[in-house]
Write a structure and sequence with these properties.
Elements: H1 2-34, E1 47-48, E2 53-58, E3 63-71, E4 78-85, E5 95-98, E6 103-111, H2 118-168, H3 174-221, E7 228-235, E8 240-248, E9 251-262, E10 270-281, E11 287-295, H4 327-334, H5 345-367, E12 388-390, E13 395-397, E14 404-414, E15 418-421, E16 428-436, E17 446-452, E18 455-462, E19 470-495, E20 498-511, E21 517-524, E22 534-538, H6 540-543, H7 550-556, E23 561-568, E24 578-589, H8 599-611
Helix pairs in contact: 1-2, 2-3
């Protein structure tokens, strides 16, 4: 029996030697195949230079970035390279500006090429080879132990057959059978423990291998962001400063105003106006400690003055011909010749479009009978404030998902708060104040958040306002002042072939405040395009004292807008409410009735005129119902 056990142990040892030899051969082959070919690095032909970002001008939908480079003195030409230009850079937008001692011979922008890291690659290959070797060793150990267990099972089978033969021959050797059984159980127990530990070690190595593969895959996926290099050939015998500028997309800003008003019982009311720029920055580069500016214009803003050309007109040959008076202008616009070779096509088209639109308005003015016609050019809302605002201190603007608010301007001003009452449009009075732009710069139009005495009262929109001009700020409704409009009487009479309609109105104002208040009361009477058909006559005695404000008399009174500047005593409401009466008369053919022609379009034009600044070019009234038909615009 000892001989049998010795044979089994010899077989196990032989199997271990065979597996070890096979594994060594496989590892040797794998190591040879894993060796990488040698690479020879290319010599550098350019010098990388530091190029910190020093200044940024943010436009409404893009930005201009400036980098500064200190060029070392050299008697020979230099090839310098600026790296890290972001992927959002605009094509062919890179420009340079240098000191007088520096001459730039050429500029080339190319995608950035990352040189291969041979040392890191070799390290990864060595780590992968070591992991493969450890994994194969562990797998070999598991296989050997499993073969040992199979050998033990073969021994059990052989011993069982031998024991059965001994039983048939009545020669059973109990000591030998017991020794074999003890040996088998001990070896099984030892091999089972070894197999468990070997499989656990193998699983651990497999997990480590998978984790390494995931890390390598992540490193492959997380490639550095695509960037560009700018390579310049320069001559700088004395050295000097070179500025490199370029345009980037995915950058924008929006103006946001915050207005804090404080009403004073004694003295002037106070206002704090703050303009912030809300920046969206996804250019792909961080701006650290830069001189920041905000620009309201556009990079391709046309600098040339619009050219006014003659208006050539003729008359219809037939009296009943109703041909569109603008048809000839449209045809001439389509068949317009090409511009001179040296002319900018965009400028040519702009002048052509502006003159054609203006011709249409002038022909309309001549053909249509209307008492008052007010028009503003199409650029009234866009080009009033092509302004640049510079932030006083250097600032950081990171490439980030969240927007960043940066304070641009802040100033204090005193101005009285008044109330606008328009019974036709609202049952309440609206607080308002006219503020002067004392910043010395034009203000861009934008949304505003308004606070009165520390309370949020609403949001409004401020119009573009020239330096020194005025803009009005709505401060919300005053629920303590209420109003209504009443038609008290309508008297009709016939005079010849005409009908006269006399209308009497009462405007009621209720003041619930414990003190008297100053209000601007607005109403309107109709105006007509044909004074020969419809006549509107006002009774100056009933109208009373209209406002003497110069802007009102110049711009609003001719359009039928009525305004009274009144003082309403305290606690005037209910049966004691303040009443204001006025009367006007309409005379027209008795067979006709009043209609409003193109009412919506005409009101759109009037609102645009008022909100665009009217004749004063100072910005329209900014909030509440008072700016709609009553106090609207800065005239």
């Amino acid at each position: 029996m000892q001989a049998i056990i010795g044979i089994v142990e010899a077989a196990v040892f032989f199997r271990r030697i065979m597996f070890a030899s096979s594994a060594a051969l496989l590892l040797a082959c794998g190591f040879v195949s894993a060796q990488a070919p040698k690479t020879v690095p290319d010599p550098k032909t350019v010098v990388d230079v530091d190029s910190p970002i020093t200044a940024v001008t943010v436009f409404r939908r893009q930005a201009n970035v400036v980098r500064e480079i200190n060029v070392a003195p050299s008697t020979e030409g230099q090839m310098i390279r600026v790296t890290g230009l972001p992927k959002t850079i605009r094509d062919q937008s890179v420009r340079w500006e240098s000191d007088a001692e520096i001459t730039v011979r050429s500029l080339r922008v190319t995608p950035h090429q990352i040189p291969p890291d041979d040392a890191k690659r070799r390290q990864r290959e060595e780590e992968r080879t070591a992991q493969n070797q450890a994994l194969q060793d562990a797998a070999h150990e598991v296989a050997v132990i499993e073969q040992d267990l199979e050998t033990i099972e073969d021994l059990v089978t052989f011993s069982s057959a031998q024991t059965n033969d001994d039983l048939r021959q009545s020669e059973l050797k109990v000591d030998s059978v017991t020794a074999i059984a003890d040996f088998v159980m001990q070896r099984r127990r030892a091999l089972a423990k070894e197999l468990h530990e070997a499989r656990r070690a193998l699983q651990t190595l497999q997990n480590q291998m998978e984790e390494s593969m995931r890390q390598r895959q992540n490193e492959t996926n997380l490639k550095p962001a695509a960037t560009f290099d700018a390579t310049l050939m320069v001559d700088a015998p004395r050295g000097g400063l070179l500025r490199l500028s370029y345009w980037v997309d995915e950058v924008s800003w929006e103006p946001q105003y915050t207005i804090h008003a404080t009403a004073r019982q004694q003295g002037a009311d106070e206002f704090v106006v703050q303009l912030d720029g809300t920046v969206t920055q996804h250019s792909g580069e961080d701006w650290r400690g830069v001189r920041l500016a905000f620009c309201t214009g556009v990079p391709n803003l046309q600098a040339a003055t619009p050219l006014l050309v003659p208006l050539r007109v003729s008359v219809n040959q037939k009296a009943g011909d109703q041909t569109d008076p603008m048809a000839g202008y449209a045809k001439s616009r389509q068949s317009a010749g090409t511009p001179p070779a040296w002319e900018d096509p965009a400028l040519w088209q702009r002048n052509l479009a502006l003159n054609t639109e203006a011709a249409g308005r002038q022909v309309h003015e001549i053909n249509r009978r209307q008492s008052v016609q007010r028009e503003m050019a199409d650029d009234a809302n866009t080009n009033l404030t092509d302004e640049t605002y510079r932030v006083a201190e250097r600032i950081d603007v990171a490439d980030q998902t969240a927007d960043q608010a940066i304070t641009i301007l802040r100033w204090n001003i005193e101005s009285p708060i008044y109330r606008v009452v328009t019974p036709l449009l609202s049952s309440f009075a609206y607080r308002e104040a006219a503020l002067e732009n004392q910043t010395g710069q034009s203000l861009v139009g934008g949304d505003a958040t308004v606070f009165l005495d520390g309370r949020f009262v609403g949001r409004t929109t401020l119009p573009p306002t020239a330096a020194g001009g005025e803009f009005a700020v709505g401060l919300g409704a005053d629920r303590q002042v209420r109003t209504r409009r009443e038609l008290l009487a309508r008297d009709e009479s016939i005079q010849g072939g005409n009908r006269l309609s006399k209308l009497e109105y009462r405007l009621v104002i209720s003041n619930y405040h414990p003190e008297e208040i100053e209000i601007q009361l607005y109403d309107r009477i109709p105006i007509t395009s044909d004074s020969g058909t419809v006549n509107v006559d006002t009774d100056s005695a009933s109208l009373g004292n209209l406002s003497t404000d110069a802007k009102y008399l110049r711009m609003q009174r001719p359009t039928g807008i009525l305004r009274w500047d009144l003082t309403i005593p305290a606690k005037r409401f209910g049966s004691n409410a303040y009443d204001h009466h006025y009367v006007y008369t309409i005379e027209m053919d008795r067979t006709q009735s009043i209609v409003s022609n193109d009412v919506e379009q005409q009101m759109r034009n009037d609102l645009r005129f008022n909100r665009s600044g009217g004749g004063g070019m100072g910005g329209g009234f900014g909030g509440g119902m008072g700016g709609a038909m009553g106090g609207g615009g800065s005239f």
